[in-house]
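dumping the sequnces here before i forget
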Amino acid sequence: EVQLVESGGGLVQPGGSLRLSCAASGFTFSNYWMSWVRQAPGKGLEWVANIKQDESVKYYVDSVKGRFTISRDNAKNSLYLQMNSLSAEDTAVYYCAKLGLTGSWYFDYWGQGTLVTVSS
Amino acid sequence: DIQMTQSPSSLSASVGDRVTITCRASQTISSSLNWYQQKPGKAPKLLIYAASSLQSGVPLRFSGSGSGTDFTLTISSLQPEDFATYYCQHSYSIPWTFGQGTKVEVK
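..and the predicted 3d for all of it:
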């Protein structure tokens, strides 16, 4: 059974940093692209970042470029999101998601999410 | 960026109703369109990928159609567990974007 478990969320002051983790199990982690998707309270979904299996390719939404870094450790079956220079607009539930491996791109499994609150 | 617009934003329906949700892209996205269901406090769940392919384990009452700019999610006979918010999402080019969501409520 595929499982994705996020951790590392919490309350952080504006301008601060936070590192999210996602522990993966139930599939061969090193074979798949992975993503982060976020959802502000009461709002819709926003794709944040993608990372290729070997970390050679990374994509980001413009609003986090230069502030967030996606990374992974295939030996530990783990995905990470380093978030710097946080602002209130980054307050959201952050989901780790696995990408499907067919010719199409889609999020086929999601974690339960971890809440990040940016406030003084 | 490609904008995704869903309609309606919300709808009221009864168990057994046929429900149709529309998603329109601001430019052509071929068949790079996915549908998700989200219940309150839960993570989204993939229903349909590549516009019309049913994800494993998803009931057959869910179906998707369309290509280019106009897409549809249909629930053939609404069940009690289908009351939720539905999102479309394109994966044609970076950045991937979602529609604003359609909330399906009890009539």
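Strands of chain B lie at 4-7, 10-13, 19-25, 33-38, 45-49, 53-54, 62-67, 70-75, 85-90, 102-106.
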